[in-house]
């Protein structure tokens, strides 16, 4: 297997340049046209001839064929989009686009897959093919880029038999990896509740059906769904994240809008949350003389690592950094990741890569740690050599 030292030096310096360029020029959702153009030009410069663009608007799939004969095709995925955050990292390569920021490390993910592409295109010491998947719109709600690329048939179109993903992890030491079999990230559902009341002057609340008070009771009531109605050994998170009422001091509005998110590891708990959130909100509102409108959307499924793919990922990471640097029983995160759709379509695995003591993802001070680049590049290369080695 290939040592991490192979990916230091010139390749790391080049990948650092790519990463910082992408960081300076972040683009959102499906509108990653310049990023996709940059990626496509780099892939072509590596001598990769089979490059298909425009998948899910701005997504890319490129194929590298090995020189070891016939074999399967495995997919390696990187996300390309940024977030609508004002950057506060104060780095020389900070965002040049006000209000846009690579606050989740997708610039690093893209640079690492480009680095692996350059190396693999020059060596081709494997059988079968590698499908390089560069995905837009990971950070958006339905339909996300991962879902759309699957819906547009990339797995069948490129005959992908297994698919793998990777994400940086702030707080995990550089050179370390984390993974587990089965669920590794939770599902994401979103809900909206419109509390209907009867508005009026704030000086005469007795002549109203106050939706603000009803909304407050609903928010408190939702907390008991987890603490009193679910098994404490099971994982369920219900968080209210939005509240919109009157904009004036002296008006009780006709309605109040509540919104939030649900995270879990089991589809049965998704069913429970959808049913019980409505029942709780409706019961409370009607008890005060009001009512609710309710919408519930299943946004992202559980990110589920398949046994064989997990073992291959662990082997590749251990071959790169040694057994002691790979935690194969990492704690499950209740965050969500739309790579889950690709793992529903094909077996494979999702792994974390240490980003060092940086700010957390989605924080204005976050920055991808360039010291992680050779480890990410090396993991991809070792994974290809593990799965497709001759």
UniProtKB/TrEMBL annotation:
<keyword id="KW-0479">Metal-binding</keyword>
<feature type="binding site">
    <location>
        <position position="104"/>
    </location>
    <ligand>
        <name>Mn(2+)</name>
    </ligand>
</feature>
<keyword id="KW-0464">Manganese</keyword>
<dbReference type="Pfam" id="PF01546">
    <property type="entry name" value="Peptidase_M20"/>
</dbReference>
<dbReference type="Pfam" id="PF07687">
    <property type="entry name" value="M20_dimer"/>
</dbReference>
<dbReference type="GO" id="GO:0046872">
    <property type="term" value="F:metal ion binding"/>
</dbReference>
<feature type="domain" description="Peptidase M20 dimerisation">
    <location>
        <begin position="191"/>
        <end position="266"/>
    </location>
</feature>
<feature type="binding site">
    <location>
        <position position="139"/>
    </location>
    <ligand>
        <name>Mn(2+)</name>
    </ligand>
</feature>
<dbReference type="InterPro" id="IPR002933">
    <property type="entry name" value="Peptidase_M20"/>
</dbReference>
<dbReference type="GO" id="GO:0019877">
    <property type="term" value="P:diaminopimelate biosynthetic process"/>
</dbReference>
<dbReference type="InterPro" id="IPR036264">
    <property type="entry name" value="Bact_exopeptidase_dim_dom"/>
</dbReference>
<protein>
    <submittedName>
        <fullName>Uncharacterized hydrolase YxeP</fullName>
        <ecNumber>3.-.-.-</ecNumber>
    </submittedName>
</protein>
<dbReference type="InterPro" id="IPR017439">
    <property type="entry name" value="Amidohydrolase"/>
</dbReference>
<feature type="binding site">
    <location>
        <position position="106"/>
    </location>
    <ligand>
        <name>Mn(2+)</name>
    </ligand>
</feature>
<keyword id="KW-0378">Hydrolase</keyword>
<feature type="binding site">
    <location>
        <position position="167"/>
    </location>
    <ligand>
        <name>Mn(2+)</name>
    </ligand>
</feature>
<feature type="binding site">
    <location>
        <position position="362"/>
    </location>
    <ligand>
        <name>Mn(2+)</name>
    </ligand>
</feature>
<dbReference type="InterPro" id="IPR011650">
    <property type="entry name" value="Peptidase_M20_dimer"/>
</dbReference>
<dbReference type="GO" id="GO:0050118">
    <property type="term" value="F:N-acetyldiaminopimelate deacetylase activity"/>
</dbReference>
